[in-house]
Amino acid sequence: MLTEWNKLIDYPFTAIEELVGKERIQQSIHQFVARTVEKTLADVVVPYQAKIMNEWIPKVVSIGGQWLSGQVEEIVQRLQLADIVRSEVETFSVERLEEMILSISQREFKMITYLGALLGGLIRILQGIVGLWI
Questions:
Q1: Burial 111-125 (b: 16+ CB within 10 A, else e)
Q2: In whole numbers, what is the pLDDT of the chain averaged over residues?
Q3: Is 1 helix (H, G, I), strand (E, B) or coil?
Q4: Model's pTM, two decimal places?
């Protein structure tokens, strides 16, 4: 049987075309391609789904994350983010910049005030406890 296969492989394609017919070969190829294309990716992937989900995706994410973390500086330089931000901020009016800075600082100062009140209260309680023992 292997010798028949070797003979078939060595057989010139033009002879096979004459034997089978050009139209039939084209029709067979067309049907094969149509059947293959009609399959969805899900149909093709189903046998490998567990391996893809449990092995391939975690490896790709891990390797991709490591590569990306090593490329952050170069990506930022290529995108020229600092220049883009600078040019955008330069287009803002002084009133708009002042409004942005005040709104951000108000939120931050409010949190600093709350943190100060919390720490002050904890320190006062601790002082009261220490005062009772002395």
A1: eeeeeeeeeeeeeee
A2: 84
A3: coil
A4: 0.35
Average pLDDT of 31-46? 76
The residue type found at 35 is R
CA separation for the pair 32, 38 (Å, rounded): 10
Tens-place pLDDT, residues 65-122: 898 888 888 887 888 888 888 888 888 888 888 888 888 898 889 999 999 999 999 9
Report how far residue 36's alpha carbon sits from residue 27's, in angstroms, rounded to the nearest whole number: 14
Residue type, 43: D
Contact 47, 39 (CB under 8 A): no
Scan for tokens 């309680």, then name that residue: 125
Residue tagged 């290529």 (tokens): 78
Compute how many other C-beta atoms are within 10 angstroms of the C-beta atom of residue 25: 13
Length of the chain: 134
- Phi and psi at residue 21, in whole multiples of 5°? 110, 135
